[in-house]
Amino acid sequence: MQDGGRSRTGFRVSLSRIAPAHAQKAHPWFSVGVEVGRRVAVTTAAADQLDLELACRVVGAGLLAWALIGTVMALFNLQPPDPKNEPPPSFHATLVSTSRFHDRDFNQCKERLQDFGATRIEVGEDQPGQLVLTVGLPGNFTEGQSQDRLKEQMLRLSGAVDLRLCTFHTCD
Question: How far is C-alpha 27 from the geometric centre of its chain's CA atoms?
Fold first, then answer.
């Protein structure tokens, strides 16, 4: 029989809750209203409490699911960086004039930096009208080469100023 439907005797029955299978007919949390000729909706404070508990459980389960999803995503996205995968440090020097890029003596001196351990030598524009010389450092210097000697040679380049040692994260 449906809620509020007529039975064979003409009575209308309204159930505010359907009792679980283990509950007895006289369970105090569930009530049944029966009246001739009109529909009766009977609710109790206990039935309202069950609705609140069910809503809390549904919201709690949803929040728990989102927390688990967030934890799994954090495991993959927030791992500390692997130092083996980071690029090696480099020297960055600002060039005083953009004409240095086309200066023959500057380019010859720049190429000699490889003799002091430079792995890559690039000139690029940092800001409009400002050139930056970037010199990559090797993981290990060979005999007769060192970071200090390479730095000295870079400071000897005409027009190179503001020499900084840069890692993947910072420039000093």
Answer: 51
Output the CA–CA distances (angstroms, integers) from residue 155 to 121, 159, 162, in the order listed: 15, 9, 9
Angle, vertex CA 92, rays to CA 88 and CA 93, nearest 5 = 160
Rounded CA-CA distance 40/46 in Å is 18
Q: Which residues of 88-103 are buried (b: 16+ CB within 10 A; e: fewer)?
A: ebbbbbbbeeeebbee
Mapped onto helix, strand or coil, the DSSP state of residue 120 is: coil
What lies within 8 Å, CB to CB, of 41 at 6+ separation is: 14, 16, 33
Domains and CATH numbers, the chain: 11-77 (no CATH), 90-166 (3.30.70.260)
Would you state the structure tokens that stand for residue 98, as one six-digit string?
A: 């953009």
Q: For 91-123, how does the pLDDT look when each residue is reduced to its tens digit (9 = 90+)? A: 999 988 766 667 788 888 888 999 999 999 998
pTM > 0.70: yes or no: no
Dihedral in degrees, nearest 10, Cα atoms 143, 155, 162, 141: -10
